[in-house]
Structures are given as structure tokens and as C-alpha cells.
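Re-run with default settings, no changes from the original entry. Doing this only to confirm the output is reproducible before filing.
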Amino acid sequence: MEPAGPEPSLYTVKALLILDSLGQRLLAKYYDGTFPTAKEQAAFERSIFSKTHREGGEIACLEGLTVVYRSSVDLFFYVVGGCQENELMLSAVLACLLDTLGHLLRKEVEKRWLLDNMEGTFLVVDEIVDRGVILESDPQQVIQRLSLRAPEPAAYGFVLFDYLTGSSERRDVGDAGGRE
């Protein structure tokens, strides 16, 4: 007896995209040969943006692919999978990406903050999806792996000690210069 559908695969994500409000690429990771050239990738990005930037939905089927997307301020986030992929898994990846970036940036995800923290964005994407395989969909686990916890403020005594130590070093340097 033959299976009714295609073989299950771990390679569920074909692409992960972040576009700005004009449809320009800020980040794009393509995980298979669906769009092998930069020209085909740019055409796909224009197509996907033109069909989704005004719609209120979160899921679309374009060019035989399942696309899960969401907007945040002036950015559009896309997770692209095959036509038979589970939309809930793709949505979980998208939610994980947005929640993790929100924690990383400590505010609403917007273009200016994303560009200032692009290296962290690449790390987040790589922790969630690797070569098309979903590694993690829990934002807390991604944050823990990347150690993106906010640094704890120093105790008042240490700040005061550092301040006093720094000022006494400056005083010593000034005194040494005066004696020569």
C-alpha cells in the first residue's frame, strides 16, 4: 500500500524573510533550491509582498507554497514552507521569531532597531531554523540559548567603589604630572 501523500520530512521551512514597508529585503534565508538565483529570490519577494502587504490574513498559498506572515510596525515577517506543510508549525516559528526579537530589542520590533541589531537577528534566526529544519519554537529557550538576558544592574556599593577608584587614579596621574 502506497502512502497517500509525500514522505514526511524534517525540512519544513523553505525560506524565512524580513522585508521593510516598501518590500525591500532586510534579511532573507533560503533553505533549499526552490529559488536558486538572487534574481528569482527578488522576484519571489516582490510577488509575496505585493500580495500580502495589504491583506489582513496571516496565511497565504502563493506559487504552490504555504506562506505564514505577520507585520510589526514597519516590517513584514514571512515563513515559507511547502504546499503540504503544517501551517501551525510555520506559525509557531513565526511567533517564536517575533517574540524573541521583541525580547532582544526590548520593545516593538521596528526597522531601525532591527538594523542596529542585525547580528543578533541572524543568531535568533539560526537558533530557530537550521538548513530548513525547525530547531526551536519556544522563545524562552532561544533566549536562554543565546544568553540574551538583560544584564543585572550593579550594586550601588560597587558603582560607588568604581567611581572612587577611578577618581583616585585620575588624581594620582595629575599629582605625578605636577611633580616633574
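The radius of gyration is 23 Å. The longest helix spans residues 156-179.
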